[in-house]
What we know:
The protein is an alpha/beta fold and 250 residues long. The chain has one domain (8-249): Carbamate kinase (3-Layer(aba) Sandwich), CATH 3.40.1160.10. The protein is 41% helix and 18% strand. The protein contains 9 helices and 11 strands. The chain has helices at residues 27-42, 59-64, 69-93, 115-123, 141-152, 185-191, 198-206, 221-226, 238-249, and strands spanning 8-13, 46-51, 98-102, 111-112, 127-131, 156-161, 166-167, 179-180, 182-184, 211-215, 233-236. Strand 1, helix 1 (27-42) and strand 2 (46-51) form a beta-alpha-beta unit. Helix 1 crosses helix 3 and helix 5 runs parallel beside helix 7 (198-206). The radius of gyration is 17 Å and the shape is globular.
Amino acid sequence: xxxxxxxxxxxxxxxxxxxxxxxxxxxxxxxxxxxxxxxxxxxxxxxxxxxxxxxxxxxxxxxxxxxxxxxxxxxxxxxxxxxxxxxxxxxxxxxxxxxxxxxxxxxxxxxxxxxxxxxxxxxxxxxxxxxxxxxxxxxxxxxxxxxxxxxxxxxxxxxxxxxxxxxxxxxxxxxxxxxxxxxxxxxxxxxxxxxxxxxxxxxxxxxxxxxxxxxxxxxxxxxxxxxxxxxxxxxxxxxxxxxxxxxxxx
Length: 250
């Protein structure tokens, strides 16, 4: 039986991972994501999750109408807590122990984010879901994902998206756009590729933390990435990419 390539991961889920046709937090969509996490967890992989909130709140439109950026960002952080609780409920209903930790204190519904407590939960085999971003405005949930991944010692960030990797341009607008199988951090910054914001990407680069961008809508893709299959786009250091290419060639 093959062994996981990554034993400790941070899964970045956008708000779209929770959205369905019938509402902003769709029960079936959330349950599908929870089952994929369960399959990885069953392999003995330590799983932390950072969730977005775009299915509930889009601050940019309100900012354009005159809302203060900090207020819009705090409202977005609260939206991520709703998604985190929904994911926790879906996980617990299928027997996966989990904890929600928030960067903004709300003791009645979740634990405050404490790094050592998060590490202990992961050691005990619990899925830890990080919500409310970093607790500060002007920082994205991508930056939260990079920060938390480094803090808890994750081996990779798995970024679940609507597309099957990183493209040279928006594939919906540019049919001739090409998909990268592997790309260096600096190349992402130089080409302005849509992977993560520059703060998040720089943090990953400084800590040599790879990012795998893949399609979350294909059942089983999370496990495929964890097991080392060539899924989506691998973002890392140029030297590491050579080793990855050789591994795929074998």
